[in-house]
Write a structure and sequence with these properties.
The chain is mostly beta strands. The protein has strands spanning 2-6, 9-11, 17-24, 33-38, 44-50, 56-58, 66-71, 76-81, 90-97, 106-108, 112-116. The chain is globular and about 40 Å long.
Length: 118
């Protein structure tokens, strides 16, 4: 299993970013996938997940500001981040989770850094 995130960067408050996760080594189209993040000095936080059929779910704290999607033909997972806040600064990871939809355990990429600063 290989998951490679990209798309992070430095953005001003109120800005947007689109994160990508290229998946390989498994049948991506058959798996539920999710995004988690880890802010400096904090633990992992589940953000969103998407089932193989495209049904998406979100953490209440993030609902309305993020959107998860996937392209099964390209084995790629996406996370659109909108109206970014300073507290969204974190390392963002895509995850092929074990267990429940909001599990923080599983196969994870190396992450992509999102920094929100003016």
């Amino acid at each position: 299993v290989l998951l490679v995130e990209s798309g992070g960067g430095l953005v001003q408050p109120g800005g947007s970013l689109r994160l990508s996760c290229a998946a390989s080594g498994f049948d991506f189209s058959r798996y539920y996938m999710s995004w988690v993040r880890q802010a400096p000095g904090k633990g992992l936080e589940w953000l969103s997940g998407i089932y193989d059929d495209g049904v998406d779910i979100y953490a209440e704290s993030m609902r309305g500001r993020i959107r998860i999607s996937r392209d099964n033909a390209k084995n790629t997972l996406f996370l659109q981040l909108n109206n970014l806040k300073i507290e969204d600064t974190a390392m963002y990871y895509c995850l092929r989770p074990l267990g429940a939809h909001n599990s923080l355990s599983g196969d994870r990429g190396q992450g992509t850094q999102v920094t929100v600063s003016s």
